[in-house]
Hints:
It is built from 4 helices and 4 strands; from the N terminus they run αβααβββα.
Amino acid sequence: MEMVMATVIQIVLRFFEKYPSKMVYIEGSTPERTRLYRIIMSRELLEIEKVFTVYGLIGNNPELFVKNLNYDAFVISLRNQNNLLKLLYENDNQ
């Protein structure tokens, strides 16, 4: 599970490197999986927010992500391109 999430994170980072003005929509294939994504984002929110702005969707209504609030899906956008490039560079050198 952790390796899968690490791979997904790397893909998202590379996506934003190429398309910095786009957004990424995230929804689990089941409500349980969406809940798992929420738990992970809640746990890692301080780190995530260094690079991304995270929105939670309730129905079609977006709001800034709030820890431990139930959402139907999530949307992330790039907040800080310099931090993104730093993350990518550090990961490439490991």
